[in-house]
Amino acid sequence: MGSWVADYPDAENYLSLFYSENYAPNGPNYTHFKNDTFDQLYKQSLSVSDNKKRLELYKKMDQMIIDDASVVVLFYDEVLRFTQKNVSGLGINPTNLLELKKVRKN
């Protein structure tokens, strides 16, 4: 699907694209990927607050998507930002949004 961007910088936001209850057109699962084990892990990850445990679940789900070849990545977003030497604090974030809260002119 073209032009989709993450709403927030968490793997759950990306993995929700493959949760079977999110089938398009009622959700973002345009691949119509369906895997009962994936769905179980996805639901489990929603209730895990420990970041390390949740990351392990995310890794398992990600590998399932790759193994089943439900998606072919053709493009990834790249952002370039040019500044003068007297500007600091302009960085990047996981969703490539322009955040100016920490930008300072020296």
What does the model show?
With 106 residues, this protein is mainly alpha-helical. The chain has a domain at 11-67. It has helices at residues 11-15, 36-46, 51-67, and strands at 87-88, 104-105. Strands 1-2 form a two-stranded antiparallel ribbon. The longest helix is centred in the middle third of the chain and has 17 residues, at 51-67. The protein is elongated.
* Series of H and E elements: HHHEE
**Percent helix:** 25-40%
Strand content: under 5%
Q: What integer value in Å does the Rg equal?
A: 17 Å
Write a compact overview of the structure shown.
Helices cover 31% and strands 4% of the residues.
Lay out the secondary structure.
Layout: H1 11-15, H2 36-46, H3 51-67, E1 87-88, E2 104-105
Antiparallel strand pairs: 1-2
Helix pairs in contact: 2-3
Features:
106 residues; mainly alpha; two-stranded antiparallel sheet; 3 helices; 4% strand; elongated
